[in-house]
Design goal:
With about 140 residues, the protein is mainly alpha-helical. It folds into two domains: about 1-75, Rossmann fold; about 75-135, no CATH class. The protein is about 40% helix and about 5% strand. The chain contains five helices and two strands. It has a two-stranded parallel sheet. Helix 4 (about 95-100) packs parallel to helix 5.
Length: about 140
């Protein structure tokens, strides 16, 4: 699936994201929200692949380069995901700090470091405050 396949559904957001990527004007972080977690996950997966792709096309990720193949096989070493855990389905502050620590050091390869927080609304208050300080 191409990132632009989501263009109509998300009011041309994919088109604008691609233009920002092509011009080197992407943000350091993005927040995507929606009603369907499954649909949102498909969009985020395509966006992550587009960011990581080393041979970007007009429609998004090429699907052919080394980074695209690594992402498809779930072996892209610089992709970090944080999801709610434990019985309470919350994101704990210690988990968030561990997640954040992975971004303090330079990558060993030419790969971009990418972090995805799934269901960020499930963060404990302490985790929310820690994350906000990082974004500042």
């Amino acid at each position: 699936m191409s990132l632009l396949d989501f263009n109509e559904r998300y009011r041309r957001l994919p088109e604008r994201l691609l233009k920002a990527l092509e011009s080197g004007q992407t943000g350091q972080s993005y927040i995507f929200s929606g009603d369907s977690i499954e649909e949102l996950q498909l969009f985020v997966d395509d966006w992550v692949q587009t960011i990581a792709c080393s041979n970007l096309t007009a429609h998004g990720a090429c699907g052919e380069c080394r980074n695209c193949h690594l992402l498809d096989s779930k072996n892209y070493s610089e992709l970090y995901t944080l999801e709610p855990a434990s019985k309470s389905r919350t994101i704990l502050v210690n988990d968030l700090r561990e997640f954040q620590s992975r971004f303090f050091y330079k990558s060993n390869s030419n790969m971009k470091k990418i972090g995805v927080i799934v269901e960020a609304d499930r963060m404990q208050v302490a985790a929310q405050n820690a994350f906000l300080k990082t974004l500042e």
